[in-house]
Write a structure and sequence with these properties.
alpha/beta, single chain, globular, 546 residues
């Protein structure tokens, strides 16, 4: 009888197992494994670049700042105008001095008269004088200024005076400008110093506190709100806390300023500036000039409402109503705007503007965001948790976008059709448009070939073809600019809205995350550790060795 253990031999080609060494050489790691390994590598490389490159090559920050400046007007278009009308800037300008028949500096009596008008005729919520009364001068009207400040205190209007640190580190004014003995403080001293960026000299941040050896409150030993030895508050923070009800825990980082631009409904501040174009700011000035004219090349006007000191004398009932709307219950910030004045700050949005607008914008930021004001963080070897979280998310996204076709095709047995369908999802209308243009181009080429050179038909066809090529090139370049700008803007808005981070570190991150990928460092380290995968798409041409 037949044997019950009859052998069923399988063909050797189908059943033979490869040697272990052959398996290691022929079976590369799965794409998901390679992606999981390369992702931490990308994170480490990106964070090291963010921390190290600016220290090794300081000029590398220049490109970041140019990009950030282009983004700042777009970011400002999304800044809510909730508290814009709560802040009014009152400027001492050349016309106001000419009307008075006085030069600068004006007598203390003139300051006292201006303050008396504000306190007696109107009722501001708070007053800030961005004028440092530091140097003593021969002026017998100083007591009149002290009296006007104390009368404002009696009327319930808090006054904040700009002050600079003296030799002992305390904020100080000139001798004689102080609260009379035995009275409650008539004013508070606030810090007004700031630091322009070392790369572009623009003001991207605003310090909320400054270290001081002494008190920060009223003058001559009074303590208002903070005890001796506490850090001095900035002008914007003191107003927001004492007159706006805000309470902030002290942090080391300064506030990252968001410069608002939604001023289209305000009177134009000056002839040298223009209203914001909103999201059209994404377009280069030469393109906006097609419908804006020369105005497209002007800087954007300051965000805050502004009045000139000479306007405190209304000539009609309409002027009086306007003054009451802008002064009653408002934060009033008084500053100078005179020819030859050095009290200017360079805004990334507005260019050089009177320094008082810096404090107005900082106050508006605090009133708008409250405790969620934007932090001016910097990349460190171990970044702050906000930057670490943002950096991880952006690097993962960039890494996925650059490898998605490889991963999607691997998930379908090497068939990259799903990846190609995924890549073109939402772009079919663009393909159809380009196909239509291609048919028109072929028709023009046929006309050009079908007629002798220098005939009208040939010349017209060649001219249309040249115009089409130029238009296609410009459209591609404009599309790249608009797309990349929109992506960076989206990341900035998300970082501001979710993590309370300013603009500069986000632009740094976007540049470095892409650079780490396009330089090919992540891919090369992965190939060394896991071996090369023949199915993985090659690096861009710029990565290839000669």
């Amino acid at each position: 009888m037949p044997s019950s253990h009859h052998s069923h031999a399988a063909p050797a080609a189908a059943g033979a197992l490869p040697e272990a060494g052959d398996q290691d050489r022929t079976a590369p790691h799965k794409p998901a494994t390679r992606f999981a390994f390369s992702l931490p590598v990308a994170l480490v490389i990106s964070f090291l670049m963010l921390w190290g490159i600016p220290k090794v090559v300081p000029s590398s920050d220049a490109i970041t700042h140019v990009t950030a400046r282009l983004q700042s007007a777009l970011v400002g278009a999304f800044y809510p105008a909730t508290h814009r009308d709560d802040v009014t800037v009152l400027l001492i300008d050349d016309a106001s001095l000419t009307e008075l028949g006085q030069g600068w500096p004006v007598p203390y009596r003139t300051h006292a008269r201006w303050l008396s008008v504000l306190g007696q005729v109107y009722k501001p919520r708070a007053i800030f004088l961005d004028i440092t009364f530091t140097q003593a001068r021969d002026d017998a009207t100083l007591p009149a200024l002290v009296q006007s400040l104390c009368r404002l205190r009696d009327r319930g209007v808090p006054v904040f005076l700009a002050a600079l640190p003296g030799p002992d580190g305390k904020l100080a004014l000139r001798p004689g400008l102080e609260t009379p003995p035995g009275e409650a403080p008539c004013f508070q001293l606030v810090g007004v110093d700031y630091e322009a960026d070392r790369i572009d000299r623009l003001v991207w941040s605003y310090p909320l506190w400054r270290e001081a050896e002494g008190h920060e409150g009223g003058h001559a030993g009074s303590e208002a709100g903070h005890g001796a030895g506490q850090p001095a508050r900035s002008a914007a923070l003191a107003m927001a806390e004492d007159a706006g009800g805000l309470r902030l825990a002290r942090e080391e980082e300064p506030m990252a300023l968001v410069w608002g631009v939604r001023n289209g409904d305000l009177p134009r501040y000056a002839e040298w500036c223009r209203p914001s174009s909103g999201l059209a700011e994404v377009l280069p000035a030469p393109l906006r000039a097609l419908w804006q004219g020369k105005e497209a090349y002007q800087p954007i006007c300051p965000y805050s409402r502004a009045l000139a000191m000479r306007q405190l004398k209304p000539s009609s009932e309409a002027d009086e109503r306007t003054l009451r709307e802008r002064l009653d219950g408002r934060f009033v910030l008084i500053g100078t705007s005179m020819a030859g004045s050095n009290d200017l700050v360079a805004s990334p949005v507005h260019g050089p503007i009177p320094g008082v607008f810096l404090h107005a914008m900082a106050l508006d930021n605090l009133l708008t965001y409250g405790t969620r004001y934007k932090r001016a963080l910097e990349w460190e070897l171990l970044p702050p948790w906000r930057l670490a979280l943002l950096g991880t998310a952006v690097v993962i996204l960039a890494h996925w976008l650059l490898h998605r076709r490889y991963l999607l095709s691997a998930g379908h047995g090497g068939n990259d059709a799903p990846a190609r369908r995924h890549a073109w999802l939402g772009r079919r209308w663009w393909r159809a448009a380009r196909a239509w243009l291609a048919r028109r181009r072929h028709a023009l080429e046929a006309i050009a070939r079908g007629h002798a050179r220098w005939t009208p038909q040939h010349l017209l066809a060649e001219a249309l073809l040249a115009a089409g090529r130029l238009t296609d090139f410009l459209a591609r370049q404009l599309g790249r600019i608009v797309f990349s700008t929109a992506v960076i803007l989206l990341v900035i808005l998300l970082a501001q809205g979710v993590l309370d981070i300013g603009t500069l570190p986000v632009v740094d991150l976007a540049a470095m995350a892409l650079a780490a990928e396009w330089l090919g460092w992540t891919r090369k380290i992965t190939d060394v550790a896991l071996g090369e995968d023949p199915d993985e798409p090659p690096l861009p041409e710029s990565h290839h060795s000669e």
